[in-house]
Amino acid sequence: MLINPPLDFELKDVDDEHPYLKDRGFHAQTIRHFGLGVCSRGLMKGRVVIPLHDAIGRLVGYAGRVVDDTTISDDNPRYRLPGRREREGRIIEFKKSLLLYNQHRLKQPLNDIIVVEGFTSVWWLTQWGYSSVVALFGSDCSEEQARLIVHATAPDGRVWIFPDTDAAGEKGAMVMLARISPHRWTR
């Protein structure tokens, strides 16, 4: 089984001028910086595609977000992440718990790192001038993600935790604090 291997393709012809992102206030520069756009075919058709990279910058998958929230259902979730698949007789699996979204863009070690739950928070904070931001792919911080955060931060650096303001975010922040605070200053 291969976990988060590099993709052997890149999505082409995504619409980076689709109104979904611009109507939400994202600048064209932010959209291009993150490689965002709406896909016109395949599994991600009609979704904003979000390139996912490992810590060294290899493209390992795409997430997709619906552009019309009224279509969200059990069969059509808000976000679609890569699943388990077979290719050339090998099982390939995507595990978000082993990655931090946007980590590959950071100049390490960092004096400060901001940790958020989701992709859009990374885009907003980057657009507002905060360049050292990563996302967990949700409210849960795995032990591997905590290790990646500690490793990305200088020994005297600071980790700023900004969870969503719901019960899951609060619980996730407490777990993250417990995993990171023995190693780095957290707030």
Automatic annotation (TrEMBL):
GO terms for biological process: DNA replication, synthesis of primer. One of its GO terms (cellular component) is cytoplasm. Coiled coil: none annotated. InterPro entries: DnaG_primase (IPR050219), TOPRIM_dom (IPR006171). Pfam families: Toprim_4 (PF13662). Residues 112-176 form the Toprim domain. This is DNA primase.
